[in-house]
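Quick one:
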Amino acid sequence: MPRLYDRTLVDRPLAQTQQGLERFFASLRGGSGVARFRLRVPMEGAPHGYGISLDRDVRIEVRRRREPGLPDAIEISWRPEGMLVFPSFEGTLAICSESDRNVSRLELEGSYTPPFGVAGMLFDAAIGHRIAQATAREFLKDVKNAIEGTVSS
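Output:
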């Protein structure tokens, strides 16, 4: 399975980032107890710069992992609902401290399954990996905004 890695800095100390992350994931749970999130992939080079993007609801599962000697991490996976243009993902979301104690780092790392089965490997080589990478980047941006309290509409 293809690998994926991305990271972002959060303008909050480590403890606040951890608390904000827990609130973020708790907010995704609906009345059914199933967590859903709307993933976005901006389309680069869209005509006229109108900010066109693809988006899809995914079922998201998270579990906290604490192991001695490793940064706190959350095991995370998502599966697209409906049309399967988005990849499924399994990995970890690590929360790391920075030298500046007022800043922390989120790192998303894992593997994804390209859509479309066997044909998905060709799709992944052509544009799928870029879609998966952009999805990870947008996911981290949304998490960062939620933690920092500046979620945009």
